[in-house]
Specification:
- By secondary structure, this protein is mainly α.
- Helices cover about 55% and strands about 5% of the residues.
- It contains 5 helices and 2 strands.
- The chain has a two-stranded antiparallel ribbon with strand order 1-2.
Length: about 120
Amino acid sequence: MLLKLDTGDTRPLHEQVAGAIRRAVAEGECAPGDKLPPARELSLALGVNANTVLRGLRTLRDEGVLEFRRGRGVTIAAGADTRTELVERVRQLVADAALAGYSRNDLVDLIRGMS
């Protein structure tokens, strides 16, 4: 898995790490069940602190994209490819709504009104 961070990106580094892994999953570079390299290796490859990588990995775990298994490491969760695509689309929707002047709460209200 080849991950790269964009030096011109203004987002926090842990979000960039999570985004890079999301893209790898969405593009089929990683499949459900694949094991990720240890955080220390990822941090060296990306040129960031290991704690930054761990924070990004925890974000993905909370989203259901990764599974942490004691003694087995971190693996791509079942269904992560579908979930990753949906998360990216939601992130884009939130960004588009912000550009149009809507807050996250406004967006939630719009979505609730569609039910």
